[in-house]
Amino acid sequence: SEVVCGVQGQFHTCAETWLQFLFESLSDQGLPNGLLLEVLVHTVTSIASTISAKHSKLFWDILQESLTKQAAVWNDKKTECNSNSIAHILQLMLTVLNHKQCSLLVNPVEFVKTLVNLTGNWPSEVTMLLVDISSAILLSPRVRLPQDLTIVLTKKILSSGDWNAVKHFVSRTLPYSGFEMHILPSFLQQ
């Protein structure tokens, strides 16, 4: 983590290159994914504890770029390796989001638009991670989304076709202040 984190809550100057390398390594079949994921979980946990929110944009940009690239590969050829890479990136995102109730998420609208573009025909593990991420964002007192984006996100998840994910999303978001307005009507229309 000292390689990535600089002083005063900022990233080190080499952080961009290093983080891109680490996240892209998740799709390298020649590397031990379990060990790499452990290293990355430790790294992002350290980032969440060290980097201030106002300096976390770099981190989110790199993660979203990695996720978008892997999603494009998934759309071309749906392989287990690619699915695992996407799941690992989502797990890392969730780790940081769960730290202090999404306090490091600097551009939630852009991030949720990325999620909305991703939701679709995914393996169950990926869909459940998308549900957990979406729920964490909706339940965070630190994040405010425009109503139209909240509705789009909710409808995408509820129309995922994965009944277990839908039930999980509904149960996770019961405490959400907009549950009765945004989630329940769409759920009942299913």
Automatic annotation (TrEMBL):
This is Uncharacterized protein. It comes from Homalodisca liturata. The lineage of its organism: Eukaryota, Metazoa, Ecdysozoa, Arthropoda, Hexapoda.
